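Please, structure for the following, as tokens.
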Amino acid sequence: MRNIFALLALLAGTTVVAQKEYFADYSLKQVPEGMGRYFVQTKKKDGLWHRTAWYYPEKTIAVEGTYVDEACTQPDGVEKSWHPNRYPKTSHQYVKGKPHGVWLGWNEEGMRTDSINLKEGHRTGTSYRWHRNGMLSDSIEADGKGNSTQVSWDEEGNMRSAGRWVNDTSMNGRWQYFYANGALQGTEDYQAGKRIAIACYDEKGNPLNNCDQQEATFPGGLSGWRRFLERYLDGSVAVNNRAPYGVHTVVIQFVVGTDGKLTDMKAITK
């Protein structure tokens, strides 16, 4: 009987759709029912897999796109995502898995964060990124073959760095870094992504001996970090929100600036 219905559907010109639904974690990998951050639905139609993911439990759309493969690892077409508050988050274009076209991004308040032009996986033309206050953060001029020049500014509009890239992701040649007052802070020389020389200066232009960055630590070390948490973490938040007894993990998103400052901190989970 099933074969007859399938044959009738084909004769009528109707596409037979394969579909599956599951819960997924932050990487959109399947997890046991009720445990995921997303509820995902995939359908095969017109030769492509259409995937839609909703935030769970908010029941708002999170990601939507079309893919070549059932695992949805090779996007083809436009892949869009949204913040939990329903503002758009990203809009990315692909051709058979390769980034191709305009890539756009927005923060959770609806402000543009980046605009990138891509051709067969490489940056091309002029791309921009913006700070949260609307000031320009980065400008990249690329030739579409992996070579580009980047200039970056801080939130006050002061130029902080400038340099070149090869293969889109490897620093090359001399990179310069500046203090907020415009004085040269340091230089780094790269060869195909490998740093071969470094120099740094104080704000008066005097050379400094130790230029390499050290690993960031909290003032007072581990014990200072523990005291900070004991003072400022409010354990009643979980209780007041009727969270079940146990250990709870909160995912925090933030931006680390070139000066080491943390900004744009927000909780991704509840």
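The chain has a mean pLDDT of 84. Residues 54 and 62 are 5 Å apart (CA to CA).
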